[in-house]
From TrEMBL:
It comes from the Eukaryota. It comes from Rotaria magnacalcarata. This is Uncharacterized protein.
Length: 171
């Protein structure tokens, strides 16, 4: 039997501990990177995303137009189906407008804009104004609308500029 002699690197204690620390820190970093990738968090050492991506003015104008149309429809009690029809009419009327041609909201998107964007914003605004008011009244009632149970409420309060009235319907 022949044994091949291997060269063994002899390290001093300080060198060994520093190499062990650097190896452990590399292992910890790799494990952390794996966890962040699983969570969807990425550590980017490059430029900020706000400097590389420029806001698209046209997309902002389209979103503003959609939100305005939904607000108008909700304010005047227009159904989401009628709002969808209005969108098609606007596309035909203003066919030369890029914004009108890009409007793309139907019943589902209009309902999502009303409940997830506009309602929280207006609710927050009313609550902030009510905190500043000395007196306010709140009235509510539960009612059925088809197979849907609704809880509308009405808020009336005094503000710096006069009496304000607001109503909000939880859909």
């Amino acid at each position: 039997m022949f044994y091949q002699s291997e060269e063994v690197e002899i390290l001093e204690e300080d060198e060994l501990s520093s190499k062990a620390r650097s190896t452990l820190s590399e292992i910890d970093k790799k494990q952390k990177d794996k966890r962040e990738k699983k969570k969807g968090i990425f550590n980017v050492d490059r430029q900020l995303i706000t400097t590389t991506l420029k806001p698209n003015r046209e997309e902002d104008e389209i979103a503003a137009a959609e939100a305005t149309l939904v607000y108008h429809g909700v304010r005047h009690g227009i159904s989401y189906l009628a709002q969808q029809c209005t969108t098609t009419v606007l596309k035909n009327l203003f066919s030369s407008s890029l914004i009108a041609n890009s409007l793309s909201y139907g019943r589902t998107k209009a309902a999502a804009i009303a409940t997830d964007v506009l309602a929280p914003s207006f609710t927050h605004h009313v609550i902030q104004e009510m905190k500043l008011a000395f007196y306010y009244s709140l009235s509510f009632d539960a009612s059925n609308k088809g197979n849907l149970k609704t809880y509308p409420f009405c808020v009336q309060y005094f503000s710096d500029v006069g009496v304000k009235k607001g109503s909000n319907s939880k859909l």
